Amino acid sequence: MFENMCGVAIPFWLPIDFNISMWKYFLIFCNAYNLGYILPKGASVTILYYGFLVFAVDRIDFLISIFEELNPRMEEKKAREKFKFCVEYYTEIARLVDDINDTVGVIFAPMQNGLVSIIIAVLEYQALMGKGAIAFFPLSLWLILQAVACRCGQTLEDASTRLRSKVYGMPWYQMKISFQKDFRIFHAQVQKGFHLKMKPSIFMNMEYYYQFMNGSYSILMFLVNMERKNMK
């Protein structure tokens, strides 16, 4: 049962014969649903992500530049004013990330939790079965949209890592004793980082894109091997 399935257990759980006409109508429905509903929504969400990303990353880079001006040897009053600005600015960025995760993240969640993997696998299957002209356009768009969304998340995480490194490298132990406690609280908060998150707990980054493509490939191999089995 498993010898030709790339280690995927789906044939054992779902031993369905694919040579029946029902699957032809299923593929037609998938194409119509994909082009008419899912793909436009995915494109819209990805555009929102990109717009949010540019805004958020610019703010993080600006915060880093302000934080670089903070010096333990500065006058305490001036240092506290600059530090207070950094804390307030960081809080605004954190709210922005939370808002995008609570809105677009919820909208995009159903497509991220397996649906897109199935759609791409079906389109790849159609392309391999000689329907490349029909499947190539939506397949290319889905791969691009998924890559852009994950690249956006990775870029945000990279900017967050730069901020964490800058805060971590600050010699806080040289500050005034009364200032050290506040700085350590801010340091602990910054170390959590920023992520583009799909509900319930998917971080959109290039590692997820790699896992996503592996899942799509497994489904594709399932379809291809079932087709080969039916042709024997």
Describe it.
The chain has a two-stranded antiparallel ribbon with strand order 1-2. It has one domain (23-231). Helices cover 78% and strands 2% of the residues. The chain is built from six helices and two strands; from the N terminus they run αααααββα. By secondary structure, the protein is mainly α. It has helices at 10-13, 22-68, 76-128, 132-168, 177-190, 206-231, and strands spanning 197-198, 202-203. The longest helix is centred in the middle third of the chain and has 53 residues, at 76-128.
- Count of individual beta strands: 2
The poorly predicted ranges are: 1-18
For the sheet with most strands, the description reads: 2 strands, antiparallel
- Element pattern in H and E: HHHHHEEH
Rg, rounded, reads 24 Å
Helix tally equals 6
Q: Please state the average pLDDT score.
A: 76
The first-to-last residue Cα distance is 15 Å
Shape estimate: elongated
Task: Tell me the structural class.
Answer: mainly alpha
Task: Compile the SSE list and pairings.
Layout: H1 10-13, H2 22-68, H3 76-128, H4 132-168, H5 177-190, E1 197-198, E2 202-203, H6 206-231
Antiparallel strand pairs: 1-2
Helix pairs in contact: 2-3, 2-4, 3-4, 3-5, 3-6, 4-6
